[in-house]
Design goal:
It comes from Thermomonospora cellulosilytica. Belongs to the ABC transporter superfamily. The chain has helices spanning about 40-45, 70-75, 90-100, 105-115, 130-140, 160-175, 185-195, 210-220, 230-240, 260-270, 285-300; strands at about 1-10, 15-25, 30-35, 55-60, 75-80, 150, 180-185, 195-200, 205-210, 220-225, 245, 250-255, 275-280. It has about 300 residues and is α/β, with parallel strands linked by helices. The strands form three sheets. Strands 5-6-7-3-8-9 form a six-stranded mixed sheet, with helices on both faces. The chain has a four-stranded antiparallel sheet with strand order 11-12-10-13, with helices on one face. Helix 3 (about 90-100) packs across helix 4 (about 105-115) and helix 4 crosses helix 5 (about 130-140). It is elongated. The two termini are about 35 Å apart. The structure holds adenosine-5'-triphosphate. Adenosine-5'-triphosphate binds near residues 16 and 38.
Length: about 300
C-alpha cells in the first residue's frame, strides 16, 4: 500500500504539490491522472525518495522509501524509459542491478522473458527503440519481485502493440495482488486500464474514487434524438415535463426519459425522427470538465 498524507512540494514560488492525501491499495490498478504540470511526476518522485517533500509524508507499506531495507524488493518503478547506461548491454545492466541488490541471476532470465526482451537482451541499451527501452525499464522494476509498483506515463510513445502489451502487464500485476500506481494525462488510456482513479490538478486532489463511480457520477447519460423539427420536439418534451437541450451538432439531448418514451412522444406529435439512441458523455469530456479550472488557473497565474 502507498499512503500519501498532506504531501506538499514547493519549487521556489511554485507549489507543484499542494497538501495531497490519498491511498493506493493492492490488487487493483490505480490511475493517477492530471493534466500536464499537475504534479504527478513530482508526487511519484517523493514517494520514491527521489525528491524531499516540503511538508507531509509519503509511505510505502508504512515507511518512507529511505527507510526500506532492500528497496528493490519492496517497490519497483518506471520513472523514465530505460535508465540503463547507453553502452551497456540490456542483460548486463540487469545482471549488474541484480548483483548489487543480492538478487539471484536466475531472476534476470525470468524478467527478460516476462517483458519480451529476449531479442534485444544482448544489444546495447543506447540503440534501443522507446518500446524496448520501456521494456528494459520494466524488467529492472520487476527484478526484486516487488509488491508495490509505480509507472510514470508508461504508454507514452509506444506503438499500438506496445500499448496493448503494457495494459495487459499492468492488469496482470494488479491481479497478482500487487499495488500498482500508473500516471497518465490521458483519461481514455486509464478508462481501459485502471480500476480506481486519483485525479489531481495544480497539485491538489480533485477526485479519488473507483472508475465505475467516476463514470456514473460524471458521465451524464442521455437520449440523443435528431429531428428536422427540433423546436416542435423541444416544445413537446417541455410540455411532457422532460428536460432537454440542443447539443453542439443540433441533435437534442434528452435527460429523464428513456428512448421508448421519447420515440412515442415524437410519434404522438407526428414528428419525424431521423436518429434516436442512448449515449453518454465520454470519460475524456468528464476529465476535461473536472480539471479545466485547474488548467485555466495555472495558465493565468504562471503566464504560460
Ligand atoms: N525540479 C523542478 N524545479 C522547478 N519546478 C519544477 C521541478 N519539477 C517540476 N516542477 C514544476 O512543478 C509542476 C508539476 O510538475 P510535474 O512534472 O510533477 O507534473 P506532471 O503532472 O508530472 O506533468 P507532466 O505530465 O507534464 O509530466 C510543474 O509546474 C513543473 O514545472
Amino acid at each position: 500500500m502507498i499512503e500519501v498524507h498532506d504531501l506538499t512540494k514547493r519549487y521556489g514560488r511554485r507549489l507543484a504539490v499542494d497538501g495531497l492525501s490519498f491511498r493506493v491499495r493492492p490488487g487493483r490498478v490505480t490511475g493517477f491522472l492530471g493534466p500536464n504540470g499537475a504534479g504527478k511526476s513530482t508526487t511519484m518522485r517523493m514517494i520514491l525518495g527521489l525528491d524531499r517533500p516540503t511538508a507531509g509524508t509519503a509511505l510505502i507499506d508504512g515507511r518512507p522509501y529511505r527507510e526500506l531495507a532492500e528497496p528493490l524488493r519492496r517497490v519497483g518503478a518506471l520513472i523514465e524509459a530505460g535508465g540503463a547506461h547507453r553502452g551497456r548491454r540490456a542483460r548486463h545492466h540487469l545482471l549488474w542491478l541484480a548483483r548489487s541488490n543480492r538478487i539471484p541471476a536466475a531472476r534476470v532470465r525470468e524478467v527478460i522473458e516476462l517483458t519480451g526482451l529476449e531479442p534485444a537482451a544482448g544489444r546495447r541499451a543506447g540503440g534501443f527503440s522507446l518500446g524496448m527501452a520501456q521494456r528494459l525499464g520494466i524488467a529492472a522494476a520487476l527484478l526484486g519481485d516487488p509488491p508495490v509498483l509505480l509507472f510514470d506515463e508508461p504508454v507514452n510513445g509506444l506503438d499500438p502493440e506496445g500499448v496493448r502489451w503494457m495494459r495487459g502487464l499492468l492488469r496482470s500485476l494488479a491481479a497478482e495482488g500487487r499495488t500498482v500506481l500508473v500516471s497518465s494525462h490521458l483519461m481514455a488510456e486509464m478508462a481501459v486500464t485502471a480500476d480506481h482513479l486519483v485525479v489531481i490538478g495544480r497539485g491538489r486532489l480533485l477526485a479519488d474514487l473507483p472508475k465505475d463511480d467516476f463514470v456514473e457520477r460524471h458521465c451524464r447519460s442521455y437520449v440523443r434524438v435528431r429531428t428536422p423539427e427540433p423546436e416542435r420536439m423541444l416544445d413537446a418534451l417541455a410540455r411532457a415535463g422532460v428536460a432537454a437541450r440542443t447539443g453542439p451538432d443540433g441533435a437534442l439531448e434528452v435527460t429523464g426519459a428513456d428512448t421508448a418514451a421519447v420515440g412515442e412522444l415524437a410519434a404522438a406529435h407526428g414528428l419525424a425522427v431521423h436518429e434516436i439512441g442512448r449515449t453518454s458523455a465520454s470519460l475524456e469530456e468528464a476529465f476535461m470538465r473536472i480539471t479545466a479550472p485547474a488548467v485555466e488557473h495555472s495558465s493565468g497565474r504562471e503566464g504560460r
